Amino acid sequence: MSSQGERARRFRLLHGERPLVLPNAWDGGSARVIESAGAQAIATTSAGTSWAHGRRDGQTLTRDEMVRAIRYIVEAVSVPVTADVEGGYGAGGPGAVAETVRAVIEAGAVGINLEDSPGRSGQLLIAPDEQAERLRAAREAARASGVDIVINARTDVYLFQVGAPETRFDAAVARARRYRAAGADCVFVPGVIDDPTIAALVRAVAGPLNIMAMPGASPASRLGELGVARVSVGPTIAQAALAAARQAALELIERGAYGRSEDQLPFADLNGIFSA
User: Fold this and answer.
1) Which CATH class is domain 4-237?
2) Integer Cα distance of 170 and 55 in angstroms
3) Which of 110, 200, 198 is nearest to 152 (CA)?
4) Beta strands in 149-204, from DSSP E residues, in sequence order
5) How far apart are CA 62 and CA 34, in angstroms?
6) pTM value?
7) What percentage of the chain's residues is helix, strand, coil (to nearest 5)?
8) pLDDT digit string (tens) for 37-84?
9) What is the DSSP string of 140-163?
10) CA-based angle 212:215:46, to the nearest 5?
């Protein structure tokens, strides 16, 4: 795909596959390896990217730092890339979100995740009306850029266990509908893993739904049968990679071992992935 516009169109079309599986990368190397495994599109992970910078997750990177990482990922692969921009950076208002969207598009991404956390004055979530304004600003910035990005509006009602358990479904649906009306293409509800709730969300949201595959969740194929439009894994792949690095270091330090060859990609194969 020779242009960003073509990648954007391709990415939008992929949402009809039910589900679009989006492995999450955190730098150019991980993105290239994920592409070589057959990924049709790649999502970034803010957690993995933060860890790669030696920081904790939770909006510890600046906009410029995150956009630079996104650019490296985009330039490493030929498939569409959608970027996790956390809460939008800067002061977090509509203007800051618009600036972030413009920067991400300039970096070559064709989609964003924008989350409704953290809230103001100690609240866990941003007020729905305020988040809707931020999403409208994101859509207007994308429209002005001429790149039809896919906006994935994330709500953390379930992930952060906001409110009493019996209120969370209705709260998540209300936010999802509000965000869709404000210009979001998809709604992302991380923290939900049981099939009945996921199926109910698909029906109630009445639009493309992104679910984060977590321990206890059904396989991606089953989520697609439930009507889920896209499945991502957040920091899971980064966690596995860092766990492997830690284990190899422990083996070297404690036993003088150098790791098992069957746990490694052969050097020539790995180097070949980066030959283009």
Assistant:
1) alpha beta
2) 35
3) 110
4) 150-154, 186-188
5) 25
6) 0.94
7) 50, 10, 40
8) 999 999 999 999 999 999 999 999 999 999 999 999 999 999 999 999
9) HHHHHHT--PEEEEE--TTTTT-S
10) 45
